[in-house]
Write a structure and sequence with these properties.
Radius of gyration: 15 Å
Distance between the termini: 49 Å
Order of helices and strands: HEHEHE
Shape: flat
Structural class: alpha/beta
Helix content: 25-40%
Number of helices: 3
Strand order of the largest sheet: 1-3-2
Strand content: 15-25%
């Protein structure tokens, strides 16, 4: 890998999956079951555990190691009520 390829890979935008319900979470994790996941579970949309800015920085750092990330906002999952 050349230095330019390495630099572009490290500056690429990392993506975090936004889970919409429990079955969506299960499907995504099951499809990539040989991967490591870090999921931020949000009970109340107004009060996430990690600020959006910090989460974005975290995702960028861990994605370099192949770690999958996602956010499961429980307020979107009406089956868990």
């Amino acid at each position: 890998m050349s230095m330019t390829e390495d630099h572009s890979a490290s500056t690429a935008t990392a993506v975090s999956t936004n889970f919409t319900c429990g079955s969506h979470f299960y499907e995504e994790v099951e499809d990539l079951k040989d991967s490591v996941w870090v999921v931020q579970v949000i009970r109340d949309r107004q009060r996430p555990f990690i600020s959006p800015h910090d989460w974005k920085a975290f995702v960028k750092k861990v994605s370099r190691f192949g770690v999958q990330t996602g956010i499961f906002d429980c307020s979107f999952d009406h089956t868990s009520v």
